[in-house]
Amino acid sequence: MTLISMLLALIIERLAVRSDAWQARPYCQAYLKLTAGSGLKQLAEHQYGRYLWILLPGLLVAVLLHLLDNRLLTLVVNTLVLLVGIGCWHYRQLYKQYLNAQERGDAEAAHLAMQQISQDSRSTVDSSQGLTLVWLNFRYYAAVVFWFLILGAFGVITYALLRHLNEQTATEQAAAAKVVDEHSDPLAESETAAAYGAEYSQADYSTADDISADSNGADNSAEPVTMDAAIDSDTESLSAEPESAPAARDALNCMLHWADWFPARLFGLGFALVGHFSRASNALLGYFLDFTASNEQVVKDVARAAEPLPEEVVNGIEDTSSMVQLAKRNMLFFLAFTAILTLSGWLG
To answer: Taking a C-beta distance cutoff of 8 angstroms, is the pair 179, 239 a contact?
Structure first.
């Protein structure tokens, strides 16, 4: 049943998935909206309750499937959940744009497509374009499939929610940093001030008499609101966050780190078996018992060791195609391994 669900989900995702309804993002956003408007908000903000809040959607589905105890329904639900969990149509479209641009020799369009992929993935490790694609393959395929094999639909839902929260947090932090940079940059600050000036100049005042009457009746001792004060106030409102937000980010990062820790090293072992074994195995051994290293760094370093390329082809079409082929070979290897485990009775 597990192998059938995997094969069906991977085939359908490759051939027929074309809309946001088959991506995890809208469902994660719906859960966040439900939390904000219900008692789940207190659970999500509690020091220990936030862990239960992250596990709750997967637990509900797992308990429901257990109570219904229908093999056909379990097969359908598992396939649909896995299909949503591995859905990454947005990145596949960007990669297709990159390939089309490379085919027609449009280097600028190809660079923009890959730059968009790097920005959207919120990669925390500087690397080549090909290694960025390998990391996305791990996040959206390998890790999801691993947790599906171990915990079924519960594992997929929980990991997809962790992944979405991590990407959303990275996006919010990047936006806040951009706001701070804009206000610290004199040119950006002057542009912002001009925008405020234009906004204030277009304010809807009724008549000049009303303005003079308001100014005569106002307290002249009050300090006027300056342009700098308005900008500073706006910056503070954009960068403000609840006191519990850092703790929530720490809990999220901790859970996601451990959710990726073993799959990253198992995925690295696959790189060694389908690529340059000695180089990849040496790189992997350096991280195998390292519990603090970034899992993204592990995946990328082992992938580069498994598929060494000349420096002059890095960030080119040869780099991206080689890394994509390496990731595909790795996934095929684990599918074959899963089939062996299923036929031998180790998996249901």
So the answer is: yes
Burial of residue 265 (CB within 10 Å: 0-12, 13-18, 19+) is buried
How far apart CA 332 and CA 334 sit, in angstroms, is 5
Q: Which residues of 193-222 are buried (b: 16+ CB within 10 A; e: fewer)?
A: eeeeeeeeeeeeeeeeeeeeeeeeeeeeee
Quick one: CA dihedral 178, 184, 187, 193, positive or negative?
A: positive
> What does pTM read for this prediction?
0.81
Structure token pair of residue 102: 């490379």
CA 155 – CA 260 distance, rounded (Å): 12
How many Cβ atoms are within 10 Å of 183's Cβ, its own excluded?
Answer: 19
A 10 A CB-CB count for 335 gives 15
Question: CA-CA distance, 302 to 291, in Å (whole number)?
Answer: 16
* C-alpha to C-alpha distance for 302 and 281, rounded to whole angstroms: 8
Helix (H) / strand (E) element for 90: namely helix 89-103
Give SS3 for 23: coil
pLDDT in tens, 136-187: 999 999 999 999 999 999 999 999 999 999 988 877 776 776 676 666 555 4
**DSSP H helical ranges for 185-312:** 186-201, 208-217, 227-239, 245-274, 277-285, 295-306
b/e per residue 116-131 (b: at least 16 CB within 10 A): ebbeebebeeebbbbb
Q: Is the pLDDT of residue 212 over 50?
A: no
* Inter-helix orientation angle 295-306/277-285, to 10°: 160
Rounded Cα distance, 254 and 256, in Å: 6
CB-CB contact of 99 with 319 (8 Å): no
Instruction: Determine contact, residues 332/325, Cβ cutoff 8 Å.
Output: no
| Cα 13 to chain centroid, rounded | 18
